[in-house]
C-alpha cells in the first residue's frame, strides 16, 4: 500500500488530491451520474495486477474504482479462470459487501494480450458478438462493476473492429448497468493513428491515459512530470492531456495514470544529485 498526494485536472487547472493506492494511482474527473450519484465528485482509480488480488487490502480506501489488470483471454475469446481457479466467483462479491463504494473493474489487454488476438476476436460480426458476450458473462459472474479494454495497439486495419467492439460493449454494459473504461497510452502520437478520439468520447465512460514511462534511460529524470522542465518540451502530463483535449476528448472522460514507485540510478559522476545527470545504469 502506498499513499501521498497526486494531481488531477479540473476546468481551472491542476489541483492536488490526497490518495492511497496500489501500484498505480489514477484520478478520475467529475465523477457523477455513472453510478447514479447525483452530485459531482472526484473518484480515485486504483490498479492491481490480477496475480496480487489474493492479498488485496484496502483499509484506507472507502470510495474508488479498482481496476484488476492482466486478465487473460483464450484464443477463442473466453476469459480464463481467475488465477487458475484459485479465486472463485464469490471473492469480489464479498469485497463489495464489505466496501460497497469500491467498484471493481476487469481489465483485458495490456502486455498480457497480443494485439493480434484482439484483431482476430473483433473480425466479423458473429465472432465479435460472441467475444462481447463472453466478457459480459465473465464480469457479471465474478461481480465486477465494469470492463476496461486495454488493446495495445490497434492498427489502421483494426479501426472498424475496434470501433464496433467499443460500441457493442457500451450497449451491453448499459443494459447490465456496468462501467466501460478504455486504457490508452498518453503519448499524443497514438491519437487517431491507433485510437479514434471520437469513438473513445462516444462509447467510454472514462478514458485512462497511461503515463507510466517518461523517464530517460541515460540520465536522471522524472517518471511522469506534471509540467515540462524545458519550454516547448512535450515531456509532461500537461502536454499529453492537452493534446487529447484538443483532439476532442473532454475533461470529464479523462483519467490520468500516475506511477507511485521510485527509481534508483547509478551515477557516472558521484554526488551529482540533480535532474539530467548522466547515469551508468538503473540499479
TrEMBL record:
SMART domains associated with the record: Glyco_18 (SM00636)
One of the record's GO molecular function terms:
chitinase activity
Keyword Glycoprotein in annotation = no
From what organism does this protein derive? Culex pipiens (House mosquito)
**Any GO CC annotation of this UniProt entry:** extracellular region
Q: Does the keyword Signal apply?
A: yes
Q: Which InterPro entries would you find in this protein's record?
A: Chitinase_II/V-like_cat, GH, Glyco_hydro18_cat, Glycosyl_Hydrlase_18
The entry's protein name is Acidic mammalian chitinase
Amino acid at each position: 500500500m502506498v499513499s501521498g498526494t497526486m494531481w488531477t485536472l479540473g476546468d481551472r487547472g491542476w489541483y492536488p488530491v490526497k490518495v492511497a493506492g496500489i501500484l498505480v494511482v489514477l484520478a478520475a474527473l467529475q465523477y457523477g451520474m455513472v453510478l447514479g450519484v447525483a452530485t459531482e465528485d472526484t473518484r480515485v482509480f486504483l490498479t492491481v495486477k490480477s496475480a496480487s488480488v489474493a492479498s488485496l487490502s484496502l483499509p484506507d480506501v472507502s470510495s474508488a474504482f479498482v481496476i484488476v489488470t492482466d486478465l487473460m483471454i483464450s484464443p477463442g475469446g473466453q476469459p480464463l479462470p481467475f488465477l487458475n481457479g484459485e479465486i472463485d466467483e464469490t471473492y469480489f462479491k464479498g469485497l463489495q459487501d464489505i466496501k460497497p463504494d469500491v467498484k471493481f473493474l476487469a481489465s483485458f489487454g495490456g502486455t498480457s494480450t497480443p494485439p493480434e488476438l484482439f484483431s482476430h476476436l473483433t473480425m466479423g460480426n458473429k465472432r465479435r458478438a460472441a467475444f462481447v458476450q463472453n466478457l459480459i458473462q465473465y464480469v457479471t459472474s465474478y461481480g465486477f462493476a465494469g470492463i476496461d479494454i486495454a488493446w495495445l495497439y490497434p492498427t489502421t486495419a483494426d479501426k472498424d473492429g475496434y470501433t464496433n467492439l467499443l460500441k457493442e460493449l457500451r450497449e451491453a454494459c448499459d443494459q447490465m448497468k456496468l462501467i466501460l473504461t478504455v486504457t490508452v497510452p498518453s503519448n499524443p502520437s497514438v491519437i487517431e493513428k491507433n485510437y479514434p478520439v471520437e469513438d473513445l468520447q462516444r462509447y467510454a465512460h472514462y478514458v485512462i491515459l497511461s503515463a507510466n514511462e517518461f523517464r530517460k534511460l541515460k540520465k536522471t529524470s522524472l517518471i511522469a512530470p506534471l509540467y515540462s522542465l524545458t519550454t516547448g518540451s512535450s515531456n509532461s502530463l500537461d502536454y499529453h492531456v492537452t493534446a487529447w483535449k484538443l483532439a476532442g476528448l473532454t475533461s470529464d472522460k479523462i483519467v490520468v495514470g500516475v506511477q507511485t514507485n521510485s527509481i534508483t540510478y547509478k551515477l557516472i559522476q558521484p554526488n551529482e544529485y540533480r535532474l539530467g545527470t548522466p547515469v551508468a545504469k538503473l540499479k
